Write a sequence for this structure.
């Protein structure tokens, strides 16, 4: 199949001014694309062609290419990770597009995720949020029997739903407020449902929310675009749970 | 060390050849998969040991890495890695050649019993490592014997 691509090209990291001045959409025609190729393989083919023509290849992030690491992530035709629901860009295939399709590819747009080059953004803000409390620091001692701490099945399921977050940032890219609340909510919810995580629940909720605000992410206005874009289909209830945990932490603060 | 790294980067960027990094990566992958894969034999490994140095030499003569080292350059990163693979792949073949037995998934076609891996505990009951001796120098193999005090080694049957 043949596709026409419009790709955001930016050779230098973002400046603080108007992002439109940092780069531009560039049009490329690509022939010989197989419908069995993944979206990223299609970009690989484009890059080989560009290099042979003496043009610098398009920079984009990727690692596992099997939907588990969260490194890939571009906005495809206005939707983070593209047209298929519950699918990362690396697991999207060209069969999801028609022969002759025009495809617009852009980086995540959020001031907390500055563009490094082309489609690559700096997502270290997420790392700093995680470092501020998305873990269990209690000393759990020697390994115990698997069922020594009983966890009701419903709690385990809720925790697991949140734990499927791969930290790709699609929720931020989808949100008009560039809010990271689905991501932060997933971390809070994951631990709040488990006995090991409850020990530090108040401190965690306070710290994660404070870091999220300091990093410049916006607030939630209940548009639910994040849930629609999330490749792991994390439900927006984690945001409600985060707000509840935060409120609980605030009223019990000493 | 810093100087060596800068020199290597400068060299990669200045070759400006015709073949892409991926092209070399795939060519090497094809050699490794075909001749140093799950089933390998002496003839194939000897052939791979002829082919890899030729490919490596071509890499350093004809690779095309565009852009600079002043900003994020994914081709340059990849070129550095493939340059490593071109050395490491050769060592893997030498190691496979050295192991004249079949052990688990490392199947030397010459050592089999009707399709079953045939181990040689007499000569290969050890763990081996290769010591790097500097660029262009052959690596040196060291081995540590595996000593079993309480179990007798026996042939494992999956049938
Ligand atoms: S490359 Fe790992 S999730 Fe897409």
């Amino acid at each position: 199949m043949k596709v026409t691509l419009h790709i955001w090209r930016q050779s230098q990291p973002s400046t603080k001014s108007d992002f439109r001045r940092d780069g531009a959409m560039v049009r490329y025609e690509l022939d010989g694309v197989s419908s069995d190729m993944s979206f990223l393989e299609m970009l690989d083919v484009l890059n080989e062609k560009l290099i042979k023509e003496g043009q610098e290849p398009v920079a984009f992030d990727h690692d596992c290419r099997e939907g588990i690491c969260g490194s890939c992530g571009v906005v495809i035709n206005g939707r983070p990770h593209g047209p298929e629901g519950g699918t990362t860009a690396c697991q999207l295939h060209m069969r999801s597009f028609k022969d002759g399709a025009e495809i617009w590819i852009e980086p995540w747009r959020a001031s907390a995720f500055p563009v490094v080059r082309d489609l690559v953004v700096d997502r270290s803000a997420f790392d700093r949020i995680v470092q501020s409390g998305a873990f269990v620091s209690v000393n759990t001692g020697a390994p115990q029997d698997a069922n020594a701490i009983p966890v009701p099945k419903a709690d385990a399921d809720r925790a697991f739903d949140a734990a499927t977050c791969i930290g790709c940032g699609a929720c931020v890219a989808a949100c008009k407020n560039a809010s990271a609340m689905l991501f932060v909510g997933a971390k809070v919810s994951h631990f709040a449902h488990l006995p090991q995580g409850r020990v530090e629940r108040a401190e965690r909720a306070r710290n994660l929310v404070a870091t999220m605000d300091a990093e410049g992410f916006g607030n939630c206005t209940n548009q639910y675009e994040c849930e629609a874009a999330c490749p792991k289909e994390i439900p927006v209830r984690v945001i409600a749970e985060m707000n509840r945990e935060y409120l609980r932490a605030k009223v019990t603060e000493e | 060390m810093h100087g060596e790294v800068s020199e290597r980067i400068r060299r990669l960027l200045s070759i400006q050849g015709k073949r892409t990094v991926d092209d070399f990566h795939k060519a090497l992958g094809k050699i490794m998969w075909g001749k140093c894969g799950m089933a390998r034999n002496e003839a194939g490994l000897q052939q791979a040991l002829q082919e890899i140095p030729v490919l490596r030499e071509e890499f350093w003569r004809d690779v095309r890495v565009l852009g600079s080292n002043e900003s994020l350059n994914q081709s340059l990163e990849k070129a550095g890695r493939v340059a490593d693979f071109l050395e490491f792949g050769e060592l893997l073949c030498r190691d496979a050649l050295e192991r004249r037995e079949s052990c688990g998934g490392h199947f030397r076609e010459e050592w089999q019993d009707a399709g079953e891996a045939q181990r040689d505990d007499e000569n290969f009951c050890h763990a081996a490592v290769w010591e790097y001796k500097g660029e262009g120098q052959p690596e040196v193999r060291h081995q540590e014997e595996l000593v079993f005090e309480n179990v007798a080694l026996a042939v494992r049957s999956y049938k």
Notes: Residues 17 and 250 of chain A are 36 Å apart (CA to CA). Residues 124-251 of chain A form a domain with the Fumarate Reductase Iron-sulfur Protein; Chain B, domain 2 fold (CATH 1.10.1060.10). The interface with chain B takes residues 11-13, 44, 47-48, 51-52, 54-57, 59, 116-117, 120 of chain A (CB under 8 Å).
